[in-house]
Sequence to fold (190 residues):
Amino acid sequence: KDGDGLGLERPVAGVLQVRADQSPRIGAATVTRYVLAEAAPQIKFRAADDYGLSRIVVRKVVIRAADAATQPLTPTDSAGGTAGAIIAGEQVITTLAEPMGRIRELSDTIKVELTPLNLVIGDRVEITLEAIDYRGDPLTSPGKSSRSERMVFQVTDRKGVLDAMRELDAQMDKKLDQIIDAQLGGGGSP
Fold:
C-alpha cells in the first residue's frame, strides 16, 4: 500500500529462478600426428558456454627428445596418481581469442606455429586448447575453464611424414572398402 493506504487491485507476483553458470565446453581435433619442426599444423576447435566466453588459450608443452627417454609421458605423484597439468619440458601459453563475454559459441580452424619452439627430430609437442568463461572483471572473477583433449605431435623428418601419410591412405582405403561393402549388402569385393 502507498502513503494514502491505496493498494493494487491485483498484487504483482513473480518467480525468480537462479540458473547456475556452467563451465565452458571445448573440443579440438587434428588430422596429422607427425610434423616437421618448422610446421604449422591445423587444429579445428569448437568452444561454447551457457553465458559467454572470455578467452580461448592454446597451451603447448614441449617434451625434448633427451627428456622423453628419462621421464614418463605423465608424471605421477607420491600416491601413484597423475601429477599436475605440466608435463616434462617447456610450456608456452598463447591467447587465441578474447570475446570478453560477447560470444556464446566459437568455432574455427587455427594454425599452431611450431617454428618458435626450436624443435628437433624426436621432440614431442602436446597441445591443449582451454576455454575460459566470462564472469565479469577478469581480475576479480577469473572465470571457470575447461580443456580439450591433448593432441600430441611427434616431430619427424620428411620421410617420417610421408610414411605417416601412406599409412593414413591405406587406412582410408580399407575404411572406404568397408563402407562400400556395407552399402552393397556385405557382398564383398568382386
